[in-house]
Amino acid sequence: MLRQIRPSYHPRAARCLGAAVLVAVLPAAPLLAEGVPVEEAAKFLLILAGSAGSEGRVACRELDMVIQLKKADISVDAKANVAWSFTSDQTRFYAGQGKLVVCSSRKLFADGGAIAFERIGGRLTVFVHQANLKGSGVSLPESFLRMAVKV
To answer: Where are the beta strands (DSSP E) in 75-122?
Structure first.
């Protein structure tokens, strides 16, 4: 005669399983992409603006970034070749104007973003969407493009 085995529930076993799942997930967590703080991104925008022929000027609508740009003596200018984008709407707007759109996330590449700064495993990584970069008409130094991850 076959005996049916029923799974049993034990609270301590459930907690141990939950802890094991949590431990299994934690080592992978640093590999997830994280945003770069606006203070740090503002420094990179200054370098990009100079390389893109928009020395010391960046188009931006994000209040936190505007404050950081002004602290770094970068003027916020709607006519600049380089724009900082934080949302899909901003990205589409700036890309439609033919600007080099620097984004807070690679997710905005689908909306026309050309460059994104992210931290992966705690390390700063620069991503460049080549088609969107060409569409902006802005040329960047080869030294910058060599260090970036091309998408």
So the answer is: 75-76, 82-85, 100-103, 115-120
